[in-house]
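Posting this for the archive.
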Amino acid sequence: MAKGAVARDPDRFTATGQQRLLESAARGDVLDDNLYTAPGRHGGGGAGTTWLVGSAEDVAKSLGRYRALGITHFVLSDTPYLPEIHCQGARLLPLLREAVR
């Protein structure tokens, strides 16, 4: 096993969506304009497998493209949690609200 890799239980069930994310991560560290996949190599394929990285405008643009594909729910979080949630509420959510009007 590579140094820093997470041991995976071969008998552990992997959800289809998580498996797709891991397969996407195998294609490279950055997909689309700002979809960063490297966390998936370290988190065992669980939560936080991918990140949207960039300005509020960049992230809003990417979420808009995913919405156009039919994705209707997103989990928005980051660390440190409270400061990042405040930032998302102040900068990102107004852009998303404007886009759906």
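DSSP finds three helices and three strands in the chain. The mean pLDDT is 78.
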